[in-house]
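Handout, page 2. Input:
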Amino acid sequence: MKKALILWGVSLSVAFANPPLSTLETLTVTATRQEIPWRELGSSLTVLRAEDFKARQVYTVAEALRTVPGLDVVRLGPLGQQTSVFLRGSNSNHVLVLIDGVEANDPSNPGGLFDFAHLTVDQIERIEILRGPQSSLYGADAIGGVIQIFTKRGAGKPKFSLSAEGGSFGTYRLMGQSAGEYKSLHYSLSASQLKSHGFSAADRHLPGNREDDGYRNTTVAASFSLEPTASFALGGTTRYQRAEADLDNCGGALCDDPNARGFTDQLFSSLSSKLKLFDGLWEPKLELAHTFIDRNFQNPADLLNPFASFTRFQGEKLRLDWQNTFRLFPQDDLLVGFADELEVLRSDQLSRRGQSTRQYYLENRFKWLDRLITSAGIRQDDPEHFGDKVTWRVTQAVLFPETGTKLRASYGKGFKAPTLYQLFAPDTGFGPVGNAGLKPETSRGFEIGIDQTTLNDRVLLGATYFRNDFRNLIDFVFGQGYLNRSFAESEGVEVYAEAKPFASLSLRSSYTYTRTDDQEKHRLLRRPSHKGSLDADWQFWPGAHLHLNVLAVGTRDDRDFSDFPAKRVRLASYALLNLAASYRVNEHLEVFGRLDNLLDKRYQEAFGFAGSHIAGFGGVQLSF
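Output:
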């Protein structure tokens, strides 16, 4: 189910279903690091599933996330351009991204954010979006929330599929995948290539921006699990992405660059083992995770840009996590864990900088009379380059089975450690950059809510109120470098609805109001005050589906860097209408197609960077 988000606010949810909503019994992991039914959570969590991606026919995770309440996606032009996610008004580097438990945030990025530009939906089974400070479970990067991606696990007889599609902007996508099981071995693997000639990232409606910015993405993903006995499991995942994108110099007029290019290699891997001892009373899990990201930017001199530029950044993270679940009593689970993490940055400016962090965490979750579900957690992070940091979180859910009511509340603290670049970047000819004296950014957030089911769980109503406060935010000040100098707060209202009035029709909609303020009482950049979406999926014939998606985004503040100093500007609101259709001809063949921006709306997600005009795509899939 979708969840409520905001930043000082209230969130309402409505859902109708026939049969009962599957969301209520969905097993979720991110909120507790254990499998817990959604209806027992005391936190705000949204789940997106593979069938959602397929119905909308989206290529990337960023596109799939656009309809999540309280979450805003900003892409600087066509496929492959920088793509940021803002959750509950927090900064884009305040969101921790996990891929099968592997931390994907880029250690080489100045702010430590994860760029969603290259993450496709290949091999993904579901995405869980957890809102609010989550540092007590996940540490330094989860100051605003967590987005965790779970890849598919093979089951049953091995299956194979091949798909091909193409369309506007010279775009094509090829993908092959297979999944299944053999005795105690479960496997899943896929490979794809996405290529597009694209369009100008710098708004093509402005003077001097006519060159297309193309993109190529190759993704290979695989996972396995070996379960020789009921009490032992060994698993592993790997995901490699190679991306190549044409770039422009800036957003606005005369920003085209004919030969600027960016190359990105990303590798996310994990190996884990899990035991069940003493009839499940103790479940230890040991996981080794590795992240490697290589970003290479090349901009040779040309007539418009006589100064050549070549830069390279490499970030690497190695993490060992030992997690133990103790079932003290039938209704009481204790989670105890220890992790050791090494983070490394290499660049043209920094030969090598590293930081190790030891982490200790504990959370207790217990039920009383199947009505009161309480969780309380605490964590200590001990980074190498500054003092230790303690964070905590508590959640409470109160169930009234007689009326189908759940009351919930949570409160927590979060922090974000300064990145290696912010700490150690060398001085330039214009002044200092890095600052070894930086303090961690911090946050406090709380929420209260209610969920109400009725009509045999075919109707779901919910409301959430929450607030986030951020302190010691790190800003870059020209001539002074990185400094702790700002604070911000956020609040809002979110409303969503899910319905299945007929077996052949599914409806889902959401609306979010967000208010954000910085220390000068200005709106935070690129966060809309109003956002809404509508999804309708109709099976109008056996095997035939029609999917309608509407996305409406309100005004946002941004900066125009064509002037010095950059001035604050207001971006216009916009609404997009997208349509997708599919038809399964037989058990082996399916055809599909979609139209994006059906009304050919002109819009910008960030100042000076163009959104797509009307575009069409179509393809086929063979399964056997």
